[in-house]
Write a structure and sequence with these properties.
single chain, about 150 residues, alpha/beta, five-stranded mixed β-sheet, 5 strands, disordered N terminus
Protein backbone atom coordinates (compact mmCIF):
# COMPACT_ATOMS: atom_id res chain seq x y z
CA UNK A 1 0.00 0.00 0.00
CA UNK A 2 1.40 3.39 -0.92
CA UNK A 3 0.55 6.60 0.85
CA UNK A 4 1.33 10.02 -0.54
CA UNK A 5 1.41 12.79 2.06
CA UNK A 6 1.02 16.15 0.42
CA UNK A 7 -0.34 19.64 0.87
CA UNK A 8 -0.58 20.00 -2.90
CA UNK A 9 -3.59 19.51 -5.15
CA UNK A 10 -4.46 15.88 -5.92
CA UNK A 11 -3.36 15.49 -9.56
CA UNK A 12 -3.06 11.71 -9.86
CA UNK A 13 -6.71 10.72 -9.37
CA UNK A 14 -5.80 9.01 -6.10
CA UNK A 15 -8.24 8.66 -3.27
CA UNK A 16 -8.12 11.79 -1.17
CA UNK A 17 -8.53 11.90 2.59
CA UNK A 18 -9.11 15.30 4.16
CA UNK A 19 -7.38 15.78 7.50
CA UNK A 20 -8.34 18.85 9.52
CA UNK A 21 -5.41 20.32 11.48
CA UNK A 22 -6.03 22.74 14.33
CA UNK A 23 -3.98 24.30 17.14
CA UNK A 24 -5.15 23.42 20.65
CA UNK A 25 -3.34 25.43 23.35
CA UNK A 26 0.11 23.78 23.06
CA UNK A 27 -0.34 21.14 20.35
CA UNK A 28 -1.50 20.63 16.83
CA UNK A 29 -4.36 18.18 16.44
CA UNK A 30 -5.25 16.30 13.28
CA UNK A 31 -8.56 14.56 12.77
CA UNK A 32 -10.23 12.71 9.95
CA UNK A 33 -13.51 10.90 10.17
CA UNK A 34 -16.14 9.41 7.95
CA UNK A 35 -17.37 6.29 6.26
CA UNK A 36 -14.42 6.40 3.85
CA UNK A 37 -12.18 5.73 6.88
CA UNK A 38 -14.52 3.33 8.66
CA UNK A 39 -13.93 5.28 11.86
CA UNK A 40 -12.20 8.34 13.27
CA UNK A 41 -8.49 9.03 13.50
CA UNK A 42 -7.15 11.67 15.89
CA UNK A 43 -3.50 12.55 16.52
CA UNK A 44 -1.77 15.36 18.45
CA UNK A 45 1.80 16.67 18.52
CA UNK A 46 3.68 19.92 19.17
CA UNK A 47 5.36 19.72 15.74
CA UNK A 48 3.36 19.98 12.52
CA UNK A 49 5.78 17.72 10.65
CA UNK A 50 5.70 15.05 13.38
CA UNK A 51 1.92 15.35 13.48
CA UNK A 52 1.68 14.53 9.77
CA UNK A 53 4.00 11.55 10.17
CA UNK A 54 2.09 10.30 13.23
CA UNK A 55 -1.18 10.63 11.33
CA UNK A 56 0.19 8.58 8.47
CA UNK A 57 1.41 5.88 10.89
CA UNK A 58 -1.89 5.87 12.79
CA UNK A 59 -3.85 5.51 9.55
CA UNK A 60 -1.65 2.58 8.50
CA UNK A 61 -2.26 0.99 11.93
CA UNK A 62 -6.01 1.56 11.49
CA UNK A 63 -5.96 -0.20 8.11
CA UNK A 64 -3.95 -3.10 9.57
CA UNK A 65 -6.59 -3.39 12.31
CA UNK A 66 -9.41 -3.51 9.76
CA UNK A 67 -7.61 -6.28 7.86
CA UNK A 68 -6.76 -8.22 11.04
CA UNK A 69 -10.41 -8.11 12.12
CA UNK A 70 -11.41 -9.59 8.77
CA UNK A 71 -13.45 -6.52 7.87
CA UNK A 72 -13.47 -5.13 4.34
CA UNK A 73 -11.09 -2.22 3.76
CA UNK A 74 -13.11 0.83 2.68
CA UNK A 75 -12.61 1.71 -1.01
CA UNK A 76 -10.99 5.07 -0.15
CA UNK A 77 -8.21 3.23 1.71
CA UNK A 78 -7.40 0.70 -1.02
CA UNK A 79 -4.42 1.36 -3.26
CA UNK A 80 -2.94 4.83 -3.41
CA UNK A 81 -4.45 7.75 -1.58
CA UNK A 82 -3.43 11.24 -0.63
CA UNK A 83 -3.67 12.81 2.80
CA UNK A 84 -4.87 16.38 2.34
CA UNK A 85 -3.94 18.39 5.45
CA UNK A 86 -6.18 21.43 5.78
CA UNK A 87 -4.96 23.82 8.47
CA UNK A 88 -7.29 26.12 10.34
CA UNK A 89 -6.17 29.75 10.32
CA UNK A 90 -4.91 29.39 13.88
CA UNK A 91 -2.84 26.31 12.97
CA UNK A 92 -1.57 28.02 9.82
CA UNK A 93 -0.36 31.10 11.70
CA UNK A 94 1.22 28.91 14.41
CA UNK A 95 3.00 26.86 11.76
CA UNK A 96 4.81 29.90 10.37
CA UNK A 97 5.34 31.91 13.57
CA UNK A 98 9.02 30.96 13.89
CA UNK A 99 9.69 31.90 10.28
CA UNK A 100 7.43 34.85 9.52
CA UNK A 101 6.32 37.55 11.95
CA UNK A 102 2.77 38.81 12.19
CA UNK A 103 4.15 42.21 11.16
CA UNK A 104 5.45 40.70 7.91
CA UNK A 105 2.08 39.03 7.32
CA UNK A 106 0.40 42.40 8.04
CA UNK A 107 2.58 44.10 5.44
CA UNK A 108 1.75 41.40 2.88
CA UNK A 109 -2.00 41.34 3.59
CA UNK A 110 -2.99 44.70 5.04
CA UNK A 111 -4.63 42.89 7.98
CA UNK A 112 -3.98 44.60 11.31
CA UNK A 113 -1.34 42.88 13.50
CA UNK A 114 -3.71 42.83 16.48
CA UNK A 115 -6.36 41.11 14.36
CA UNK A 116 -3.80 38.57 13.13
CA UNK A 117 -2.87 37.95 16.77
CA UNK A 118 -6.53 37.25 17.57
CA UNK A 119 -6.59 34.69 14.73
CA UNK A 120 -3.31 33.11 15.92
CA UNK A 121 -4.60 32.65 19.47
CA UNK A 122 -7.98 31.39 18.34
CA UNK A 123 -9.72 34.30 20.05
CA UNK A 124 -11.39 35.11 16.74
CA UNK A 125 -11.90 33.28 13.45
CA UNK A 126 -11.44 35.08 10.16
CA UNK A 127 -14.05 35.30 7.45
CA UNK A 128 -13.15 33.16 4.42
CA UNK A 129 -11.93 36.20 2.45
CA UNK A 130 -9.60 37.18 5.33
CA UNK A 131 -8.24 33.65 5.52
CA UNK A 132 -7.57 33.72 1.79
CA UNK A 133 -5.67 37.02 2.21
CA UNK A 134 -3.54 35.41 4.93
CA UNK A 135 -2.77 32.34 2.82
CA UNK A 136 -1.90 34.47 -0.21
CA UNK A 137 0.21 36.81 1.94
CA UNK A 138 2.24 33.91 3.36
CA UNK A 139 2.71 32.52 -0.16
CA UNK A 140 3.82 35.94 -1.40
CA UNK A 141 6.38 36.23 1.43
CA UNK A 142 7.67 32.71 0.69
CA UNK A 143 8.01 33.51 -3.01
CA UNK A 144 9.91 36.71 -2.23
CA UNK A 145 12.26 34.86 0.13
CA UNK A 146 12.91 32.22 -2.53
CA UNK A 147 14.27 34.91 -4.89
CA UNK A 148 16.81 36.17 -2.35
CA UNK A 149 19.33 33.36 -2.85
Amino acid sequence: MEIVVSLKHNKNNMGKIKVLVDWCNTNYSAAATGKELDGTILVTDRSLERLKEKFKETLEFHIEGIVAAGDPVPPALRGRYELWFELTTQALLRSVEEKITLTAIHKATGINVKQLSHYATGEKNPRPIQREKIVNGIRRIAAELATVV
